[in-house]
Amino acid sequence: MRSRQPAGDVVTETETNWSAYYRHTAGREPRPLFQRGIAALDAAGATPGDAIEIGFGDGTETLELLARGWHVTAIDPTPEAAAGLREKASGNLSEGLSIVTAAAQGADLSPFDLLYAGYALSFIPPEVFAAFWERVRAALGPGGWLVFNVFGVKDTWASDPLMTFLDRAQAEALVAGLEVVVFDEQDEDGNSFVGPKHWHLFDVVARAPR
Ligand SMILES: C[S@@+](CC[C@H](N)C(=O)[O-])C[C@H]1O[C@@H](n2cnc3c(N)ncnc32)[C@H](O)[C@@H]1O
Asked: Which domains are present in the chain?
């Protein structure tokens, strides 16, 4: 299990695992990037369809999509994430939910209308990232949406050989041929779950042609 997780306040070093991270993030609001993505979809008059969330963690965004009427395939390799989401998605919400406990690079990707991935894509190793993204682009339906962030090469964690870090041109290439609605670069010192770090991150919202 990885020992470094982003986005949040500092907790003790001994608590650095995904379960501790989920406890730490439980009850949070949907991420600002997710909210921007939903606002873009709403502005475009998008109706609920099939969504995929990669690395759903505590499940906040998947639950929000389910509440909005989307069918969601929620993919995360950590069993504790699945258990937590199953518990939270009770009653009607569970009807549209399919949970896949697997690394995204090994999971089937059915055709989708929306893919959301917050603070998760960079945990896909660099040697399989390009092939994974090819499958994402192949499964993206006409008029479908990509809402994701990915770490940049100036990030504090960029020396981790198991993670993927992109420069701006590489991040832009992920959405080549799409209508890019948001492309923001964060490049600043800040805090993380495990302490201060430099954040280099690309926030992206993009839409496929119809
Ligand atoms: C930093 S957490 C982000 C969780 C949530 N999206 C959020 O914003 O709080 C990263 C998540 O990615 C998952 N993850 C790690 N490697 C992954 C992979 N190869 N494919 C998909 N998810 C992965 C972890 O289990 C974890 O739940």
From this structure: 13-207 (3.40.50.150)
